[in-house]
Design goal:
Elements lengths: L2 H15 L4 H16 L12 H24 L9 H20 L9 H14 L1 H19 L25 H24 L1
Helix pairs in contact: 1-2, 1-6, 1-7, 2-3, 2-6, 4-5, 5-6
The protein binds zinc ion.
Length: about 200
């Protein structure tokens, strides 16, 4: 799938499990979207097509703004009060992100192991945001499983898994992106309505 699709689907999945209040929903969209694109750090380079680079930056900046704003205004999204653990989580995340950037496409970052390690780091930064990041990340792995090129879901094992159901840039990709883009504002509005 294209990065824009991963961004939208990750945000939608996280929004779907968020409680009905505007702050939690906004945090879910930001962290779910970031989790949705994070695995494709393994194809980011200066030669990357705009789609990949722009979506990685959108996810990173969105998550960073959310964390910084939360620290500044303390609007209760549950940052870890233990600063040492926050720094450990941040350093671990950057370390994993850099490892991901150096590994082959759809290998380490597209595995259950990476999902677990990245989520542990986010959990150290903010326990309440980790679930949104994890669900976004999981959505990426599940969408890529539909493709005709396999992912190393059980890295470090070499075997690649896929369901051969669609092409990364085909009609299914466009449908999922459009459907998510339409559903996100509707679901957001519905959750605020019942809040
Ligand atoms: Zn991917």
């Amino acid at each position: 799938m294209m990065s824009k699709t991963h961004l939208c689907v990750g945000a939608l999945w996280a929004l779907a499990i968020a409680p009905n209040n505007p702050i939690a929903c906004t945090a879910a969209i930001a962290m779910g979207g970031f989790g949705g694109v994070a695995p494709d750090v393994d194809i980011v380079s200066l030669k990357s097509k705009n789609d990949v680079l722009v979506c990685q930056l959108t996810g990173l900046i969105g998550a960073a703004c959310l964390l910084y704003a939360s620290k500044l205004f303390d609007f209760g999204i549950g940052l870890n009060p233990n600063e040492e653990e926050v720094w450990m989580g941040g350093a671990g995340f950057v370390f994993l992100y850099l490892i991901g950037a150096w590994t082959n496409h759809r290998s380490f970052t597209h595995s259950i192991l990476a999902l677990f390690l990245f989520t542990v780091c986010v959990n150290l930064i903010s326990p309440s945001l980790a679930v949104y990041f994890a669900i976004g990340y999981l959505s990426h792995l599940m969408l890529d499983l539909l493709n005709r090129r396999g992912i190393q879901l059980f890295f470090p094992l070499d075997s690649r898994i896929c369901l051969h159901l669609c092409y990364a840039k085909g009609a299914a990709n466009r449908f999922l992106m459009s459907a998510s883009l339409i559903t996100i504002p509707i679901l957001f509005a519905a959750k605020i309505w019942v809040w």
